[in-house]
Amino acid sequence: MKKHIKLVFAVIVGLLVYLYVNKMFNASQPEEQLIPNSIQELLSIHHDQIQMETKRALEEYYS
C-alpha cells in the first residue's frame, strides 16, 4: 500500500513540475508558437519520406 501511495505522490509531483516548466517555457515564447510549426514540418517531411520508401518497396516487390 505504501508503494501505491508513493507512486501516486510521484505522479502528482511530476505533473505539477511538468505544468510549471511548461508554463514558464510558454511565457518566454513569443505569441506565435514556433515549436508546434517546426514539429508539424518534421512530421510532414517524415510522412513524405515514408510514402516514398513504401512506394519504392512496393515497386521493387511487384517487379
Give the topology.
Elements: H1 2-28, H2 34-62
Portion in helices: over 70%
- Global outline: elongated
Radius of gyration: 21 Å
Tell me the number of strands. 0
| Secondary structure tally, helices | 2
% residues in beta strands: under 5%
Give average pLDDT, whole number.
78
State the end-to-end CA separation: 61 Å
Uncertain parts: none
- The structure class reads mainly alpha
Largest sheet: none
Question: What order do the helices and strands follow?
Answer: HH
Described by its quaternary structure, the protein is single chain
Tally of separate domains: 2
Structure notes:
This protein is mainly α. It folds into 2 domains: 1-31; 33-63. It is 89% helix and 0% strand. The protein has 2 helices and no strands. It has helices spanning 2-28, 34-62. The longest helix is centred in the C-terminal third of the chain and has 29 residues, at 34-62. The protein is elongated, with a radius of gyration of 21 Å. The N and C termini lie far apart (61 Å). The model has no long low-confidence stretch (mean pLDDT 78).
